Amino acid sequence: MPLPTQPRTSHRPVADMIGRAERCILVIEDERDIAELIALHLTDLPARVTLASDGPSGLVLALQQPWDAIVLDIRLPGLNGLDLCREVRARTADVPILMLTARSGELDRVLGLELGADDYLTKPFSVLELQARVKALLRRAAVTAARTADAMAQAPVRIEQGPLVVDRTQRRVWLLGAELVLTPREFDLLWHFVQHPGRVFTRTELLADVWGLGHDGYDHTVNSHINRLRSKLGDERADAAFIHTVWGVGYRFEAAA
Ligand code: CA
């Protein structure tokens, strides 16, 4: 389907994230009763809630403005929640996404998180649990935004590591002069690495520093992003030029001399 062209959402000012009383939350759910129940409880946070009842209109809304959070059902008419999540994540790493699924089990969990969802709830869920999860996502987003703003104020704008050039303000990457196309999350991951060459990060540390997730258990998310980033950097596991596996610990970035 044709997608609206949309500039990448930038990090908003910290004061805006933390100090604002009312959040804007998008709920994409086709079951009207559930959608209205969710809206009712999120309005209490307080938040201004916008509802979308199918995938395509949900995607347009999701990309139209910066949201404080998106609650996303997996089974939707027109475009399912997993594809929608992937489309949103390809354009912005910032917005917290809570997925709703009718199926329990590890597959949904892994799929959802690998696609870039931040949390998930299995139906039927209690609305108070949903409210608590969304609150936690908003809190985490505020902390991440504050940390990002802090790091941005101190970090350099462009880093060169051997043949690799990473530009933070343009969010662009060049390897041997050729530009690489990275997703927002892959860029954030690479930017984090190039700032600390030689330092070993555990997966839990990367989740906290890059994803802003304050708990472990989502190692698979880190692994799959590292693998995709490596393949874009041309890193072969046995002869890695940039991202090295430190067995039993995590990953270390080092530019080949
Ligand atoms: Ca549904």
Keywords for this entry:
single chain; 257 residues; alpha/beta; Rossmann fold; 2 domains; five-stranded parallel sheet; four-stranded antiparallel sheet; 9 helices; 12 strands; binds calcium ion
Question: What would you note in describing this structure?
Answer:
By secondary structure, the protein is α/β, with parallel strands linked by helices. It folds into 2 domains: 14-150, Response regulator (Rossmann fold, 3-Layer(aba) Sandwich), CATH 3.40.50; 156-253, Arc Repressor Mutant, subunit A. It has helices spanning 14-19, 32-43, 55-64, 81-91, 106-114, 127-154, 184-195, 203-211, 219-233, and strands at 23-28, 47-52, 69-73, 97-101, 119-122, 158-161, 164-167, 172-175, 178-180, 200-202, 243-246, 250-253. A 5-stranded parallel sheet has the order 2-1-3-4-5, with helices on both faces. A 4-stranded antiparallel sheet has the order 6-7-8-9, with helices on one face. A hairpin with a 2-residue loop joins strand 8 (172-175) and strand 9 (178-180). Helix 2 packs across helix 6. 32% of the residues are buried. The chain binds calcium ion. The site of calcium ion (CA) has 5 residues, from loops.
